[in-house]
Amino acid sequence: MDSVAHGSGHVDHHEEHHEERTSLGVSNLKLAFWVFLASDCFFFGSLIGTYMSYRGKSLVGPYPQDVFSVEVTSISTFLLLMSSLTMVLAVRAAKIHQQSKSESLPLTVMGWMWATAAMGAIFVGFQVYEFNHFYHEGLTLQGNLFGSTFYTLTGFHGTHVAIGVLWLLIESCIWIPMKWIRGDFADRVDVTGLYWHFVDIVWIVIFTLVYLLEFVR
Amino acid sequence: MSRFRALFASVCASLWLSGCSLWPAEDNPFTTVESSSDFSDAILGVYSLITWITCVVGVLVAILMVYVLIKFRDDGSPGNPEQVHGNTAMELGWTLIPVVLVIFMVVPTIRTIFEIADAAPDDAIEIRVVGKRWWWEFEYIEEGIITANEIHVPAGRPVNLLIESDSVIHSFWVPRLGGKRDAVPGRINRMWWTITDEVAAGETILYRGECAEYCGESHALMKFDVIAHDDAGYAEWLELMKAPPVVADAAVREAGEEAFAAGGCIGCHALTNIDGAVARIGPNLTRLGNRRMIASGTMENTTEHLASWIENQEEWKPGTSYNKLGDPRFDGMLIPVELSEQQVDALATYLSALQ
Amino acid sequence: MSAVSTQVETHSHAEDQSTAQWLWSILTTVDHKTIGRLYLLSGLLFFVVGGVEALAIRLQLSVPNADFISAQRYNELFTMHATTMIFLSVMPMAAGFTNFFLPLQIGARDVVFPRLNAYSYWLWLAGALFINSSFLVGAFPDGGWFGYANMSGTQYSPGPAMDFWNIGLMILGLSSMTAGFNFITTVLNLRAPGMSLFRMPVLTWMFTVVQFLVVMSFPMLTVAQILLLFDRNYGTNFYIPAKGGDPLLWQHLFWLFGHPEVYILILPSMGIVSEVLPTFSRKPLFGAPFVIFSGILIGFLGFGVWSHHMFTTGLGPVADSAFSLTTMLIAIPTAVKIFNWIATMWGGKLRFTAAMYHAVGFIALFTIGGLSGVMHASPPVDLQHQDSYFVVAHFHYVLFGGSVIGLFCGMYFYWPKMFGRMLSERLGKIGFWFFFVGMNLTFFPMHFLGVQGMPRRIFRYEEGLGWETSNAIASVGAVIIAIGTAIHLYAMLSSFLRPQDAPSDPWDGATLDWAIASPPHHYNFAVIPEVHSDRPFWDEKHENGPVVSQEKLAGPGEHHVPMPPPSYWPLVAAFFTAGVFIAFMFGKGADGFDLEAFKVQVAIQSVFALGMLLSILAWIREDATHR
Amino acid sequence: MSAQAHDEHEEHIHHWGIYVGIGVFLAIVTGIELGPLFDWYNIPVIVLLAMSAVKFFIVVAFFMHLWDDAPIFTRMFAPPMVGATLMVAALMLLFDGYNPTNQEDSFAVQERYWTNYSSECTSWLRSSRTNRWYCASPAIDMARMVRIGGGGPEWGNISINVDAASDPEKLAGLTEFGGKVYSARCAQCHQADGLGGGAYPALAGAGEFYGTPVNHARIVVHGLNNVPINVLGVDYAGVMPAQNDLTDVELAAVLTYVRHSWGNEDGMVLPADVAQARTDGPWTP
Questions:
Q1: Where are the alpha helices (DSSP H) in chain A?
Q2: Residues B155, B198 contacting (CB under 8 angstroms)
Q3: Would you say residue B194 has pLDDT above 80?
Q4: Fewer CB within 10 Å, N side or C side of chain B?
């Protein structure tokens, strides 16, 4: 429910040539999105705070060492990292296409976005597999504190990634080819990129605090 | 208790409206400004200091405002007043004054925090306080006595309270003996005080307490008493509680014990003079006759009240009957069997006779 | 809501629309002014609802051992009184002023994302109606506005009551956050040329700080409520002590949101007073940058003080000292603000209009409330004050004496600009005195009740505790406040019966919003003025500075300036978003996780989520085609 | 998009090689971090956190372009990031029981829960990774858990070793211990004399109703929820609260006590029967 409706009804004028004047010279959409990321910082901050506060306080039941199969998780971490790379290349391609002012279909941009979406989808797939595997190992949402906090934190992150994949697919398959976005098309792809990178850095924090910290003496 | 603290407390207490408080304990049993323990002495010290500072500042600001409102009314003369935008010196001034006042308040505050929080002396009487849904269970850990809604303590000796809850969050508060501590389920909060009032031989002083944290329907009816004795009185109370009372009148005893078993009271209540009555789900009824109030401060302890309480708990304390929520986990009071009139009276007279 | 019927036209060339056309124009409005009026009037409506709940509470507490109202009904009343007053009355009224005046004061034609602005209002309305719909099901929330854990869990609040409260507040939280993104971007990006940040009016500064607080504090509430929702629906054990969970986690997360929330409630009123005082003292706000900086400082220190609500839960001396220090630090910027207000009046030519009455009343009452607050910033004192009526007195002085009287000051000051009609000064002053006297009669005795040890949220008290007289006086005072509210409402409703004849600058104001028509044309500024100081309109009128008033810049009457067309997608998207949240009500297992209930919930939720997705796509598509 | 904003970004398109280089660097750092997972080497916690922080800032600075983008974005993102980090640290401090008395208190309180908790685990799982046993049956009766004082095993434990004892010893031991459990948990409704009354069925002489030991155990372990039954000619449809928080031995003892009191002579119920009853699920007529 964190996907914010990105209405883009600028206050703008019918005359094409008269551009919208902004006081800071930055795009409204991008500025609003950074504010959303600031808010999401506190959202994940609270979830990570809950997980870290309850770490080691489970009375009973499977502990992290008992269930973590980190080979799977490290592969999905690599995937998410590389998807961040493809996303940056997509944003770069969008800027080039924007400057070249060509009317043709920005295939390179769509290509990179599909790659990102694909890797994101695989990451979510790994996440679902991991949840299933842990469930059969006895780690349930209701069983103990570790189960509750772990599934809530990684579950909400997984939902954010899923929303990101959906956003990438809709953008690359509907908005861009059907020209729903006109003019500042690089701006839209840039904002999608910001969301994806934010979700990636949150995973960097989660991967370290939840998984790696368990195996470090 | 460090000597310095006592000195500091007395100095500030004397500031407190020259000793005679506006709300004396006689007609304000829950007053927070009359101290009867070292804990509340310390609090009263900081309390009166900060109250004085805030009142003086409040009066000064009020005077300043009234002056400005009267002096600078619009006298109808044309033109605008001098367009003053600001004055950094004054800004600095009224930033530093509050800083000084804050320092003046913070230093004694932090000193008192650490004094209140230091560990209780070893010879303190340890009492486990368990907040339940709408009554208090007190357990004298060394003595092995379990009672409800009344704490008996000797004046002059430190009392260490281990406050916890087995239902929702309550808050243990005896205003005259010091601040409140929340009874949080899953955690033990400590508080200790020594009653400083002198208790004449054979006499007792009553300090009333209440639950301060919202805990459901009968949150308002969860009061308890702290009764201070002199050392002899306290020792005598201990024996009383340990030895099961003898009910002289045999008829009352038989009828009472029969009703106690028939009504299923044995399932929840413990009673020293009935063997097998050891359950701790309901309050411990040992020597119920001696208690001042019943149903945790809801009504005076008379046989009629006891009978009507057994008859209909919901009317006295809303929310206490099981079937209200139909949920066995509810800590309410339920008599599983319809008791006849005589059985209720027999129970009431029997329990009142446990003196 | 009938008050809205005669007045609100989205376009100033208001021909006689049929009621259906007018209603459709409301439902599809994207004009920040219409949304501002909707927020204000909805806030007023719920202020009356909250007031009635308060009267019922005071009735039950007027005499000892009263049984006008049962314990369960009383617990529901005080929960809904607090939730209604905070989330459904004071915040929307402040949002109404923010929506209406933030764009005007920075010289913008509208907010950056007009449809997102409409979406926020409709989502807010959905949340408000959803919480109150619990009344129809007979399950009014009874866990307190704070909903402390392990009492708000299924074991001790088994019914759907706390689910209504929990999910309703999540909807309200999301609506406030979306509005926050919108306003922060508007303030930063759509300022008039020449208006640097420090040339913005103080009211807009306070609105901006509030929006930052909203955006950064509501996530903590949302997370706390998600964890409570999982505990209640799916049997997780975040707050269940039996399995290692700690009820204090809820208190930490709730008050991490809670304290910034109370600054969200007070800063708009501080901004309004900082505009009203200079106008009626005929001189600039004394030390405006200091007032702005202290507002920012109050806002962000607000994130570091949350545990002063938890001094009695035994956090340990170190935590208590730290939070006591940060709490007392907030007293300093507050004092700076109060002294600056008084210094503004010093040397001025004070004109006592109804708005000025309320502004001076605000300073007096807020000072008392602030000082009584400093008293229990110190943990030893707070051990006696916490959960007693002293705290009730404190926060009613700052919330009623501060926020509410500040908002009513804003109504008497800005009504001509918002609705184009003057409010009767006579009724305003009478209403103020009823508020002032009633408020002091009600809440000052509560200080004494607190010192006499009366705990909060008790539905009944016995005689002989010394609490009788103060409670009786308080109940009488509450009736006087009710009369004052009635007088104010009468003044406002009767203003709609009079023609729209308010001048565009009734109080000789100093900021851009007074430089345009009352009520402003739908495009606000035909020509966006150049700003050279923090009081552009005052400089034009009194210091023959550069011209900013629209009459002179663009000539009188209507101009054709294209504005974004109305759109119904915000309403549709808000409906589906609310549906996604409300579907959680159906996923509740009787005792922990129940797969069938979860399947029903997911089915309903995916339908609404799909609807939300499609409406967002249509929303974006609409933008592309309407270009 | 505003015109002048566009020119500003015009020349800032980096060569794709930079991004790929950064991507590779991040991958390498992540690879190093995985060392302790496979027990190749250990990394001190501080170093691990530092490595993650470096990855974090690189992604924020270069992939999210905060390094060369408008400063307002950095000013918008940095304070909340610092705020969120401080909040996590504050919550960890407040919850780790910095206050020493909290620490040993919470162990004391949880130790009480643990003893109640461990005795109820009906099925255990062993982790294939650490060979540690852990409880896999999450169904814990909350009511019993939460009662700190009450409901404790104040009836002590059984005097005999049920499996080893001979039949007569077993019967005597079970009935003696069962009596104590009965008076504490069952007398409240079925009365001490087993005659019940009102909404509660009599147990004396109800042998043919509760039938085989496993059936009898199923009725008591899972309870009855408004199931219409007929005991000694009287119809009941009330609620028999589930007693699943009692252990197998306690239930076997109380059931044997019932089957050998007030004139009943209906054989013994053994812990194995109770265990079987737990898995068979609730009894239906």
A1: 28-53, 64-67, 70-100, 107-136, 145-170, 185-206
A2: yes
A3: yes
A4: C
Q: Which residue ranges does chain B devote to CATH 2.60.40.420?
A: 125-238, 250-352
| CA of C7 vs chain D CAs: smallest distance (Å) | 37
Assembly ipTM: 0.91
Mean pLDDT of chain B: 85
* Interface contact flag, B336 D148, Cβ < 8 Å: no
Dihedral sign (CA C67, C68, C73, C76): negative
Q: How far apart are CA C354 and CA C431, in angstroms?
A: 9
Are B343 and B244 spatial neighbours (Cβ–Cβ below 8 Å)?
no
Domain boundaries, chain A: 75-215
Q: What is the CATH number of domain B250-352?
A: 2.60.40.420
Using CA atoms, how far apart are residues D24 and D41, in angstroms rounded to an integer?
A: 22
Q: Where in chain B is the domain with CATH 1.10.287.90?
A: 3-117
What is the mean pLDDT of the segment spanning A185-214? 93
Residue A198 Ramachandran class (φ > 0 left, ψ -120 to 50 alpha, else beta): alpha
Nearest to A82 among D23, D55, D113 (CB): D23
Q: Residue A168's pLDDT is what?
A: 95
Of the candidates B280, B303, B304, B307, which has an alpha carbon nearest to the alpha carbon of residue B355? B303
Chains C and D touch (3+ CB pairs under 8 A): yes
Residue D234 contacts residue D212 (beta carbons within 8 Å): no
Lookup result for tokens 């060394």: B142
Sorted by where each starts, the structural domains of chain D and their CATH numbers stand as: 3-95 (no CATH), 108-146 (no CATH), 167-280 (1.10.760.10)
Per the annotation, the verdict on C387 as an active-site residue is no
Q: Which amino acid is it at C374? A: V
pLDDT band at D108 (very low <50, low <70, confident <90, very high): low
Q: Which CATH code for domain A75-215?
A: 1.20.120.80
Phi/psi of residue B197, each to 5°?
Answer: -70, 145
Sheet holding B205-211, edge to edge: B150-154, B224-229, B205-211, B170-173, B180-183
Neighbours of D21 (CB within 10 A): 13
Average pLDDT over residues C373-391: 95
Chain C residues in contact with chain D using a Cβ-Cβ cutoff of 8 Å: 155, 188, 216, 220, 240-244, 246, 248-249, 252, 256, 303, 307, 314-319
- What homologous superfamily is domain B125-238 in, according to CATH? Cupredoxins -  blue copper proteins (2.60.40.420)
Question: If you average pLDDT over residues B207-234, what whole number do you get?
Answer: 93
Nearest to C374 by CA among C322, C331, C325, C333: C331
- State pLDDT tens for residues C438-457: 999 999 999 999 999 999 99
Which of A8, A13, A21, A26 should be substituted to probe chain D, the one whose Cβ sees the most D Cβ atoms within 10 Å?
A: A26
Residue ranges per structural domain of chain C: 28-626
Total beta-carbon pairs less than 8 A apart between chain C and chain D: 46
Range B3-117: architecture per CATH: Orthogonal Bundle (1.10)
- Pair of tokens at residue B351: 């329990």
Q: Which tokens sit at C126?
A: 């959905």
Cβ(D48)–Cβ(A212) below 8 Å = yes
Closest-CA residue of B relative to C380 is B43
Q: What share of chain C is helix, strand, coil (3-state, %, to 5)?
A: 70, 0, 30
Cis peptide bond N-terminal to C193, omega within 30: no
Helix axes A145-170, A185-206, angle to 10 degrees: 160
And the tokens for A98?
């924007």
Pairing label, strands D124-126, D133-135 = antiparallel
Q: What is the pLDDT of residues C237-294, one digit of tens each?
A: 899 887 778 899 999 999 999 999 999 999 999 999 999 999 999 999 999 999 999 9
The correct CATH number of C28-626 out of 1.20.210.10, 3.40.50.1820, 1.20.140.150, 3.30.420.40 is: 1.20.210.10
- How would residue B96 be classed by pLDDT, with cut points 50, 70 and 90? very high
